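A quick aside before the break. I want you to see a complete sequence-to-structure record at least once, exactly as it would be stored in a machine-readable document. Don't worry about memorizing anything.
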Amino acid sequence: MAPTLIQFDDNRLLPLLFGEHDKNLVRIEESLGVQLINRGNQVAIEGPPDAADIARVALSRLYQRLKDGEEVEPGDVEAAVRMASAPTDLFGEQEPVIRTKRRHIKARSPAQATYMEAMLQNELVFGIGPAGTGKTYLAVCAAVSMLVGGQIDRIILSRPAVEAGERLGFLPGDMKEKVDPYMRPIYDALYENLPADQVTRKLENGEIEVAPLAFMRGRTLKNAFILLDEAQNTTPVQMKMFLTRLGENSRMVINGDLSQVDLPRGQKSGLTDAVHTLEGVKGISTVRFTESDVVRHALVSRIVKAYDAQEQAVQAPETSS
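That is the input. The structure line, written in C-alpha cells, reads:
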C-alpha cells in the first residue's frame, strides 16, 4: 500500500512542526500506530488508511497553526490528533474560536468544540465531566471575550464554598480574603486572558465579580455572563435559587464533576437534579466530557481513568447483590 504524502511549502517552519528530535512526529506515531518518515519538505505516512488520514489532517492543522504565528506545544499535538479524529461534520465549515485580548482559544477535543459552540448559542449551558477537561477555563475565556466585545456588561463568577460550610464569617480576614482560596482556579483563568492591571481594575469597579454561591440569593443578574463552578456541591434548593438569577441578555454556564461530590452523605447534588429536571428544555444545552477529553498532562487522563475503573469495580458487586 502506497504511503500517504503531505508536502509543506515553508521549510523554515518544519523544525517547529516536527519538534526537537522529531518528538512531535513520535507523539503522532504513538497515538495512531502509524510511521512518519521525513523526506525534505514532505512527510510520508505509513499505516492503516484511516489512521494515516488522521495523521495527515493533524499535521496540516499544526502546520497551519505555525503559519498563523502560533506555537506548537506537546498539548497542541495531542489536541490536533483528537480533533482530526472527530467526525468531519461535527463542527460544520469552521471550528469555534474564542478570542480574547491575549489569545485565540481553539478546542482541544471534540467535546470542547461542542461546549464552546453551546456557550455561543445557548442562554444556559451545563458542562459535566472530570477535572482537566477545560470546563472552567473555557467558560472564563468565553466570559472575557463577551465582556471585551461589549456583548455583556459584567462577569459573575461563583463557586459553592462547601469546605467552609458556606460559613465564611468564621474565617479570618475581609471578604476577599475569605473567598479567594475557593476561587483560585477562576482567578488563574482570568489572568491568562486579561492583563493583570485590567483584571484588578475590573474587579474593583464591579465589571468582574467573584463571589460564593451564598451571595447570589435575591439578585437578578442582567447583561451578564454568569458562571457557577463546582456545581456538583450545590443542593437542589441552592441550584434552583441560582438558576432563577438569570436576567435579560445574560448567559449562564454551570460546571461540575459528578464524581467529586463533597456534600454530606445522602444529600442529593443540585447539579444531578437540575440536569434531570431541565432535560429537553429549549435554550438549555448539556455537554458531557469524559476522561478522553482531559487536556492537562497526559498522566492526568490516565489517573482519572484508573479512578473511574476502580469506582466501577466497587459498584459492580453492589449492583449484582
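Two observations worth writing down. The longest helix spans residues 298-320. Confidence is low (pLDDT under 50) at residues 163-172. We'll return to this after the break.
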